[in-house]
Amino acid sequence: MAAVWFFQGANARLSLGPIDLVIIVVYFMLVLGIGLYLKKYTHTGEQFFMAGREMSAWIAGLSFISANLGSLEMMGYAAATYQYGILVAHAYWIGAIPAILFLALVMMPFYYICNTHSVPGYLKLRYGEGARSLSAISFAVMTILMSGINMYSMAIIMKVILGWDIHFSIWISSLTVALYVMAGGLLSAIFNEVLQFFLIWIGCAVIPVVGLIETGGWAGMVHRIQTNFPGQDFIHMWSTTGSFTGNPMGVHWTGIVFGWGLAISFGYWTTDFLVVQRVMAAKDLRSAQLGTVIGAFFKMMVPLIVILPGLLALAVLPFHLVPENQAGQLGVHTYNEALPLMLARYCGPGLLGLGVTALVAGFMSGMAGNVTAFTTVWTYDIYKPFIRKDAADSHYVSMGRWCALLGVFVSIGTAYLVMNFSSIIVYAQVIFVFFIVPMFGTVILGMLWKRTTPAAGFWGLLAGILTSFGLWLWVKVDPSALQHVAFSAQAKDMAENIYRAMWSLIANVVVTVVVSLFTKPKPQHELKGLVYGLMEIAPEGQFPVFQRPVTWAAAVAVGFLVLNVWFW
Amino acid sequence: MGKHFIPIWFFIGALLVLYGALILGSGIYGLFVPPSHPVAMSDLHIGIWWGAGMLILGLAYVVRFRPNRKDG
């Protein structure tokens, strides 16, 4: 039957019915209730900041992936798919799976066995105070900035789509997160993230199911896309990347493999404490590794609810979406509205409330990830070493609780700052590349090479950050520099970020190696449990093959290869 | 996970039961009182299928992970 579209131009919004509102209100009540319920189980620092380190593999794994599955990411990647096609799925496959499996099998033993509270905490043990301070401060700044940017972007989307007041969206969602994190710390955040994982999947999966029925399956969808956008290739992942001009993103396969698949992906998945903290809370090393592999599997599946809706939008929407800078014209919808528009297309009363709840849940899980990571890094890596060294454990727990509230308030402040300087949003990815990507080089060289020295840890990290910042500034001052930084004057923002990440990592590794060769390494007895070759890991031989992390990691790796070949 | 908590799976099950019932009920209501602006593919009555699926999944979780279950 003919679809009746109930968007009536740019000023019209989704109309939520009473059942939709009940679904949203129940969700808020439940997440708060879970936080308050868990408060009585979080008295010590280990319980509040590390969830008592007693999470099962499934809980740690689902929480790990849920903290990454923010609504902004979901809507952003659906929008990017509308713009660039299935090429964006690289963010979920080569841009995630190898790095997550590497984290599970190679890096997790180091993080877990040294019994630290955070990634900067590992750097303290491995390199000393210099590298830890630089990484902790840059991580704290980045987390708050990203949190504020995400918060504002989410509020804007809620305003455009639902007509919700920006201030209402910001304050209600943020304070809810602050309350449940204050109450139950990481434990509460992890519990709610698992709940949010279910809601996100069940709420968003309606679109691909009904969408593929409408288009007559994958082949029907492809046919419609080719009819709607003749001459453009939206459905191949690798075959169009042999040149910079052969694909809508303006990226070469080398950039995808080395920039996206190595620098950005390994930087984020192996050293961003926001996600790593979840699996460090597992009850033992095997659970931490299995949880990470479970996270990898579900990450590989996320394109079903993010990329596929973007492709379906190309196939079925009766109008073309436009870039953000053309927003505001009557009857025009932007790329960022791709996912909400598809929700509106297929979801009637009840399901629409579930879909909106999924988006809100995505926002809250991402924000809780930021808040808990910030709280831990602030308390253990900034407050404890520099402000108050020898306080009682209860003092640090109390600091963590207030820090959660303070972190949310600072994020809200950042959101209002962004409101006045909206161009900051454009820099969200840039900020990420500044701070996180170089950390990977510092951490991995520290784990795998005994010769890496404390001085090299600090200077390598600083060199990576400065290289990234310097290249960004160079292109800002002289746009023609893009052809040197990204190898193509036609490179889009995403491609420029990918190449800048690659240069940043190279600078980090080169400086770390060179400084190491000219400075004095730590004695071996101080590196025990921190470096490859000086760490004892219990063999997995006593577990059946199907209970070993390496078995499931291999299965995920095979799935990853098959998917890449399938959509070549 | 420590056995002293009510398992998170129970909370998830309870929420799915409630949401499933609401969405299923809304879908059945829509059968008899069609909305004035039906969504695309509304003849699939996806709300009924989705709501029923959530209800069944939620019930399974609630029963399997109920707090007083002996082997839970």
Fold topology:
The complex is a heterodimer of chains A (568) and B (72).
Chain A lengths: L17 H21 L6 H6 L6 H12 L2 H14 L12 H17 L5 H9 L1 H34 L3 H39 L1 H10 L1 H12 L24 H19 L1 H8 L4 H17 L5 H10 L21 H9 L4 H36 L6 H28 L7 H8 L1 H12 L5 H24 L4 H4 L7 H26 L30 H18 L2
Helix pairs in contact in A: 1-8, 1-16, 3-8, 3-12, 3-13, 4-14, 5-11, 5-13, 5-23, 6-7, 6-19, 7-8, 7-16, 7-17, 7-18, 7-20, 8-16, 8-17, 9-10, 9-14, 10-14, 11-19, 11-22, 12-16, 13-23, 14-15, 16-17, 18-20, 18-22, 19-20, 19-22, 20-22
Chain B lengths: L7 H25 L13 H19 L8
Describe, in plain words, how this protein is organized in 3D:
The complex is a heterodimer of chains A (568) and B (72). Chain A is mainly α and 568 residues long. In chain A, 69% of the residues lie in helices and 0% in strands. Chain A contains 23 helices and no strands. The two termini of chain A are 34 Å apart. The N terminus of chain A is likely disordered. Helix content of chain B is 61%, strand content 0%.
Percent of residues in helices of chain A comes to 55-70%
Instruction: Determine Rg of chain A (CA atoms, Å).
Output: 23 Å
Structural class of chain A comes to mainly alpha
The most extensive contact between chains is:
A-B, 42 and 32 residues
In brief, what are we looking at here?
The complex is a heterodimer of chains A (568) and B (72). Chain A has 568 residues and is mainly alpha-helical.
